[in-house]
Amino acid sequence: MDVIVSRSGGLAGLRLTWEVRVEEQPDPREWYLLIDELPWSEPRPVPLEPDRFVYKIRCAPHEATLADRQLTGPWRQLVDLVQEAAEPLRRGQREDPPAHPTRSDPARRDTST
Questions:
Q1: CB atoms within 10 A of CB 98
Q2: I need a labelling partner for 68 at 20 to 30 A (CA). Which of 13, 36, 45, 46 fits?
Q3: Model confidence over 47-101: pLDDT tens digits?
Q4: Cα–Cα nearest to 9, from 46, 42, 55, 57
């Protein structure tokens, strides 16, 4: 089971995403218990708050979107666990470096002159 947390907003408006495979964690049973206790079905309208973070939490088949101030109790605990267990990826960031050097790569500069 994968848990994916995306955080968007803030002053810079960046989107960061953390992804954790529960089975690979040292304590998967604790993760499953926490995920099961989350109030997935409770409606949570997200208030518009400029320059505040919004979190999208996905754990198939569930998904929830919460404003920063709604991130309390088990929601906060899950987000903290995910952020501690994984490095964030910026939107559009690749996990692997490019296979070929780019123009800005010093190894590609013409040094024959």
A1: 8
A2: 36
A3: 777 788 899 999 999 999 999 889 999 999 999 999 999 999 986 444 444 444 4
A4: 55
Number of compact structural domains in the chain: 1
Report which DSSP code applies to 106.
G
- Report residue 53 as tokens: 């973070």
| Six-digit token string for 50 | 């400029």
What is the token pair recorded at 39?
């109030």
Task: Give Cβ neighbours of residue 102 (< 8 Å, ≥ 6 apart).
Answer: 108
Contact 63, 2 (CB under 8 A): no
And the tokens for 30?
Answer: 């604790």
> For the chain, what is the radius of gyration of the CA atoms?
19
Question: Could you tell me where the DSSP H helices lie in 1-113?
Answer: 28-37, 73-85
